[in-house]
Design brief:
6-stranded mixed sheet, globular, 14 helices, 24% helix
Length: 550
């Protein structure tokens, strides 16, 4: 699946904020930062360059139990059920902390290991999973195979509209021979199925049965099996979760995590600087130099890391001239992406030309970014019979990065007689309009898994109810996507991935812009907290009650 948030092929929507100005640094072949050093200075925070394999811990030991961690969240989620809602923070709060999945996928290496399923066996015609004994929901009821069968049933139900639905296409039936065993019968090879199960939070059947998943109380006050329990949610203010003392696995050290909703990043910076926030997951660009050089932040940690995520413009191919590939290519060539990267990300972003992770076998590194060339773009528009054109760009409210993109787009497109109007809406409205194809152009960010499945993004069947928001319909792409999903051999599948990359590059249903780095800042009292595209290691983190908050 893909997600607006994640495709099991994994896609995750993240709020766009400008990157921070800083000096250039080495970049690894796969696009991640190589570890340069942990630079500790008396006149600023310890600066940590994270490797492609993840960010290192701080080495502090032993951990101490108790205390509260206060985390900045700039985009309040609508609900906490990633079966039907895939914004980043909904997933980061719910999936890995309150709720749990059958399997676990390391966000950096991609390795899949057991979680709620203690063991599993994959054969040519079935995936069999055996539940861990003694796991209980937070309300005390036992986790059973019926909960798993219910959840997968909801994911496969067209009426639910789950983004994961296509991930379970190879599954013909779900059998539960006993309370601890689930057997997924398969009709064909399913190379992405284990990955899908590593990103499908299991739901408690007794709280959802007979209810609309999106409107159920449990989607706003989730009951899970994870290391933290949901406590409260005050809209517009904060959400609290607390340590699950009865957790089946290694228990969390933190007594409580408080997520503070602060849309204005300048306000969030001030709160962090005062010590009212422990974690600022994205440092505002206007304060990056302050963060690096402020003696008051000595002992704090600043982690520079590159999520496997790309920023892009999606074109609605159902809208008039946008159905013509020549027009879409022309628009990409008009858009001055290097200038945008400099303005929005202080030049700290790297090129990407397709929907796979650079440096992996699926990515075709021979494809260069389309040039910024107004003359060549005008020639393509002339060939398509376009003399003038008006587009409405759908922007998410509160995103400075999207505002900057829209402003530059207006300037760049005007050179070819194309007028751009900007419609700014709340994120929930943006998602609804994207799902109903009620837009001309919009901007999003997807994060990718190392084994990326792009079926829900580009297959024509996913234009209705999936994440093919641009309604791109290509028989050649459909055939490739179907073949990719049915190919178990890694080398053969990666070769098909590269063919799809080239096709998307030629057709430009997206204008791929860049991948950018994130800088995360945390107080000196915070330890063992590391980020990834799957969120933060809250269950392993701990705070030192003897250290000053600021």
């Amino acid at each position: 699946m893909a997600m607006l948030a994640r495709a099991l092929g994994a896609l995750l929507f993240v709020a766009f904020t400008p990157a921070c100005k800083r000096v250039a640094k080495p970049v690894a072949a796969d696009g991640g930062a190589v570890v340069v050093a942990n630079v500790t200075r008396p006149d600023g925070p310890t600066i940590v360059q994270c490797a492609p394999t993840g960010c290192p811990g701080d080495g502090a030991a032993p951990p101490r139990d108790g205390g509260e961690l206060v985390v900045h969240v700039e985009a309040e989620p609508a609900i906490l059920c990633d079966l039907v809602e895939h914004d980043a923070w909904s997933r980061w709060i719910a999936e890995n902390e309150i709720m749990e999945t059958l399997l676990y996928q390391d966000p950096w290496s991609g390795k899949i290991t057991p979680r709620l399923a203690a063991t599993f066996e994959l054969t040519a015609d079935a995936l069999t999973l055996h539940l861990r004994a003694g796991v209980k929901w937070h309300d005390g009821k036992p986790l059973t195979a019926a909960d798993v069968a219910y959840t997968i049933g909801r994911a496969r139900d067209p009426a639910v509209g789950a983004d994961q639905r296509s991930d379970f296409e190879p599954v013909s039936t779900v059998e539960t021979p006993d309370a601890a065993t689930i057997v997924l019968k398969l009709t064909r090879p399913a190379p992405f199925l284990k990955q899908a199960l590593a990103h499908l939070s299991i739901l408690p059947e007794h709280l959802y049965q007979g209810k609309d998943v999106r409107r159920a109380d449990a989607s706003r006050a989730p009951v899970g099996t994870g290391p933290f329990k949901f406590v409260s949610w005050h809209r517009g203010e904060e959400l609290i979760m607390e340590r699950n003392a009865d957790y089946w696995g290694e228990k969390a050290h933190l007594a409580r995590v408080r997520f503070k909703f602060v849309r204005d990043r300048e306000v969030a910076w001030e709160l962090y600087h005062r010590g009212d926030l422990d974690l600022l997951w994205q440092v505002p660009s206007s304060h990056f130099e302050d963060a690096r050089n402020d003696p008051k932040l000595s002992g704090h940690r600043l982690l520079a890391w590159t999520p496997r995520a790309y920023f892009f413009v999606v074109w609605n191919t159902e809208r008039g001239r946008l159905a013509d590939r020549r027009v879409r290519r022309a628009l990409t060539m008009l858009l001055d992406r290097p200038r945008f990267n400099q303005v929005a990300f202080s030049g700290h972003a790297r090129d990407i030309t397709g929907p796979y992770v650079p440096g992996t076998p699926s990515y075709d590194a021979t494809l260069p970014p389309l040039p910024v060339d107004a003359a060549a773009a005008k020639k393509l528009l002339d060939e398509a019979g376009v003399k003038t054109m008006k587009l409405t760009f759908l922007a998410s409210a509160g995103s400075r990065t999207v505002e900057q993109l829209a402003t530059l787009m207006k300037e760049d497109f005007a050179k070819a007689g194309i007028t751009v109007e900007i419609a700014t809406v709340d994120f929930a409205v943006q998602l609804d309009r994207l799902r109903h194809h009620a837009f001309d152009a919009s901007a999003l960010q997807w994060t990718m898994l190392l084994e990326q499945d792009n079926f829900t993004l580009f297959h024509s069947s996913q234009a209705a109810g999936g994440q093919n928001y641009g309604s791109w319909k290509s028989p050649e792409a459909d055939a490739l996507l179907d073949q990719i999903r049915a190919t178990g051999d890694d080398d053969a599948r990666h070769a098909l991935d590269r063919k799809l990359h080239r096709l998307v590059y030629d057709e430009q249903p997206y204008s791929f812009i860049s991948m950018r780095e994130v800088e995360t800042l945390m107080q000196r009292r915070v330890h063992a907290l590391v980020p990834s595209q799957d969120g933060f290691s809250f269950a392993r983190a701990w705070v030192d009650p003897d250290a000053a908050a600021k």
